[in-house]
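Task card 7
Instruction: Convert sequence to structure tokens.
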Amino acid sequence: MMNAHDIVVIGGGPAGLSAAVAARDAGIQDILIVERNHQLGGILNQCIHNGFGLHAFKEELTGPEYAQRYIDMVTKRHIPALVDTMVLDVQPHQVTYINREEGVVTISAKAIILAMGCRERPRGALNIPGYRPAGIYSAGTAQRLMNIEGCKVGSRVVILGSGDIGLIMARRMTLEGAKVKVVAELMPFSGGLKRNIVQCLDDYGIPLKLSHTVVDIQGKERITGVTLAKVDEHRKPIPGTEEHYDCDTLLLSVGLIPENELSRGAGVAINRVTNGPVVDDMLQTSQDGIFACGNVLHVHDLVDYVSEEAALAGRSAARYVASGAQIKQEIPIVATDGVRYTVPQSLDVSHMADLVTVRFRVGDVYKGRYVSVYYDGTRVMHLKKKVLAPGEMEQVILQKKSFTGYPGITSVTVKTEEA
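Output:
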């Protein structure tokens, strides 16, 4: 007989742990966490820098400390977890996994929570010319090698991409004695948090070259240098702007991709901007009984927001298990005029919580601009922002009572405006 659970959580990182804790606190006893690594905690285990937990715990914690808080919550609630277990397939109300002890196993679940996280974009996706010498790493791989494996990655470093992992690794490698010569960024703005630019680059005198990219890699056995060039508004290198940097290491911090192979296999609709599932205000995907949260849904800037969002997924899955599928009247949430996307992408006024947080990112750097929310053609929210930047996640909070005067509403729009 097929094993059955009320809720199966795929992924034992910060999202999966928070979702499981919230589901248990909402009254669901039969929960199973499935994690492919040999321990819980996910990517936080290699993030030994501080800065985690300021929102969730009002304390500044390291990544492992933050993860341990949630591991302790899971342990205290006696929520079982299968580690070293790879999920092979997800279908509505059914999960197939494999591990050494059990082999291939298919289990059923009343609800499934997707919390698989994301992976780094590799060099092969960048079309950088040159040989394939040693010394080229994704920033996350270098972080693991240094912080968990105890390896020295390099001495003279160039970093391509100013995402948060790249910025943090610039500081980390400097503290380990390496010389970080430059951080180059293809876009005219950084992809990381402002605080990380200040604390990881400015404080250590590491230059940030915006609108620059790597156009050549020198070295056959081991990288000996790279050539940077300035790019135009179409992101094409400008001839005559090339600069050579001697280095033995190139770190790539060029974007994160939500791991949605299982989601696609389950028939879950994927948003083309976030590369994550399309979800409603309960974080339920287009497939009945499948919920999503964390970086598999959209890449976050702070893990605190991952935990908050995942807790909603856990509570929603618990509610689904308790009450079953509900007839929904979804209202689309439209992102436009500088807002690249929103999560969630729709809501159901009749079933929504009293407060619904809508998170989004903008597509450019804006100063002195407003974030506005419209119910059909009526503006209901107009918030002035000193600076809006793609690297910083933004949010608006919608109140259920604010829809009282809009019984026939057909859409909610989130946009930026001059005034």
